[in-house]
Structure formats: structure tokens, C-alpha cells
């Protein structure tokens, strides 16, 4: 008996879309990455500059990208924009990298973060609780499977199963969780401003805001290193790996173009509104961090204030601030908030990403079986393929390594996509454009220049070069794959 196919349902309203944008963006990063940023740049002023610059780049990208979203409000989002602006090869390279690293890497990283914060409530979930360990496999490498990886995989499988039941189930969960964490973040900001003000931290953080110093990572024995101007530029670029990761996924709503009510307007408005809300919240949260805890600390200190923002336990800055404000109960409250946040982020990312693989398969550039909708009108096979690969990624690499792989590829394709606006203005000048990129051509050029500088820094900086170059190699590997696999089907798309 043939499998029953449904059709896409236009069920996502503007409110739903904004909740998907904000919910996908706000995951674990804002609660963690400020610790690493503070070690990279070493001062409160430059910490805030990193977050401000990240907000400018993200907003510039979103308001520029909106032109493409309004022109092609189709399922597949960025994959479709690249196909229309360039060709199927460029689109395939994006989809290939999206599946291998970008979308699935984010899903894995956020799943691991969820599991680690669950460990605050249930200590059994710990990277130290190794359930399976093999002997040496390659050299000194031995495979380990911890309870954290187990929970991350169970989370990804569970969310995938929910979204396979239909877009309405996925968006309902997204609306509830996104609304909850927006309110919770607002309460964290208000509570921190009202109750967390620490005069000693304010004095330490703001009497000298601009002396840039690089501090060693936890466990590394090294002296703080004053930064020259060129060293500061590199440090900012490296620090932005975490802040850009925390601000990413604003484009995911575009993947669901054919499931959105009035997509020509809703896509642009939801990306602009969502990124503006998240950017404002992120900057305010970091101000609260600086008002509550000293930025500079010591990894050997036994008190929250002594460890500071730089060496908060396991980099959990938000947890340290909550514990400073509320006492031991604060750590529990923050753990619950971050669990909700990461669950909601993965729900939005899982919901949207599979639509791109569906679009690729419809074009004959990916496994043909993924070009099918189930009876509920969702690409269930694409969802489960994404789930399988994300679960495998949970078994390899650390949170930080996944970030380095992901962010270089993400920003590289954002740059190529924004350049596509200029390409289409030249090749299709008369095509309908319900929305034209605000500030064109200046703002899109600013985005391309700043984002390109970031990519170059990741390729040359010592701490990120290895993973960024591997990410570039993965993109390049897609070229022979396209000609060996994808091109075979390119002229016979699935109808």
C-alpha cells in the first residue's frame, strides 16, 4: 500500500514566526559564552563591543536577507535563494554543509548543553559518568559514551518525533517555550538590576573598561597577555565565534516558507522583529553580568565573586549571577530556565532544517526518499535523517569544537547569500520584490565586509584555524559529491 502524502499547511502566523526566530536564536550560548569572550578580550568595554558588533552584524544580515525571503517564500529557504541567485551547485554546497555541519552541528551542540544543565538538577547526567568506554581505537583515542550524550540523543529523538506529527504540534511547543524564556530573560534582567548590584564588581569592571588582555582558558597555565591593536582585532574575531553562535538561527524561519501565512511580509517582519528583540536582551543580560560579578577572576577561587565572569564554574555565567542574587536556589532556577531555553531552541531548529533537505531532494540533489511529506504534511523522512546525523555528531567533538566547525560555515554562506542580492538586482532587475533590502547597497556591503573579516580571522587565528579549515574542506568536498551523486539527478527533479 503506497504511503499517504499530505501537503504543506499554511499554519504559521506572524506571532508564530517571531517565536520561531527568537526561540531558535536563544539557546544555551547567552548563558555560557560570555566567560570565554571575557577571557579573549579581558575587559568589560570590549566584552560589550563584541556583543554590540554581533548585534549589528546580525541585524544587518537579517534586514538584507529579507529581500531574498520575500522574493522566494518557498520551503527550503536559503537553499532556494542560492539556487535562484547562482546555480544548483552553489545551492547544493550549502545544503550539503547544512546537513553535515551547520544545522545538525547546532542541534548536537544545543542538545549537549541541555544535558549538561540537566546535570545541575540530576547529577547522574555528567560528562564524568561514562556509560561505555572502549580500549584505544586509533593511537591513544578511546571512544567514550557518557550520560550527557545519552540525554542529548534522547532529546533530539523526542523533539523529532513531536515535529513529525505536524507543524501545528511543533509551533505550539515553540510558542509556549519561546514566550516563557523571553519572560524569564526579562525577569533575569530586572531581578539582576534590582537585587544583584555589586558595588565592588561595578568598580572593578568600569573604572578601566578598555585595557585589552587575553587570559588563559581554565586548566591552562599561562600569564595574562596584553593585546596590541592587531591582537585585539584577532581576539574580537575569535570571541565572536561564541556570540555569533548565540545570535544565529534567525534565518531558520525561511526554511518553512510555504507553511507561513502571508510569507512575503511575515518572513521579513519576523526576522527583523525577532533579531531586534534578541539583540536587545543579549546586551542587557551582559550588562547585568557586569553589574553583579567582576569580569576578572581566578580559576582557583572558591567563591562566585572570586572566580568572576571569566572563570565561572563550567563557564555558566548566568548560573553564577543567579546564585549571587538568589543564593543556592538561583542555580536551580537558572538550570531550569536554560533547559527550557535549549529545548525550545532545538525544537525550532529541528522543525525548520528538514525543509531544506526536502527542497534539495525535490530538485534531485539529495536522497529521493526525502522528497516526501507524510499524512500530517511534514517531511518526516527528512526530519529523521537529520535526527540520525545530529545524534552521531553528539558522539564526537566538544561543544567548543562544534561551534568552530559550525560558525565558519554559517557565516561563509551568509556572505555568499547576501552577495546574491546584488547578483539578482543585476540579473533579474524586474522581478517582484515585495521588500527591498533596507539601506541597500550600504548595509549589505557592511555585512559582507564585516562577516568576511570574521571568516578570515577564523582561518588564520591559532585557536580556530584547524577547525575552520576543516569546515572549508567539508564545503569543498561537496563539489565532487555533487558531480558524482547530485548531478546524476539534477535534470530529473522529483515531482
Automatic annotation (TrEMBL):
Keyword Metal-binding assigned: no
Coiled-coil stretches: none
Any single GO CC term annotated in Swiss-Prot or TrEMBL for this entry: membrane
InterPro entries attached to this UniProt entry: AA/rel_permease1, AminoAcid_Transporter
Main location: membrane
Transmembrane feature ranges: 12-33, 45-68, 89-122, 142-162, 182-202, 222-245, 266-292, 325-345, 405-425, 437-461, 467-485
Record's keyword terms, sorted: Membrane, Transmembrane, Transmembrane helix
Stated name of the protein: Amino acid permease
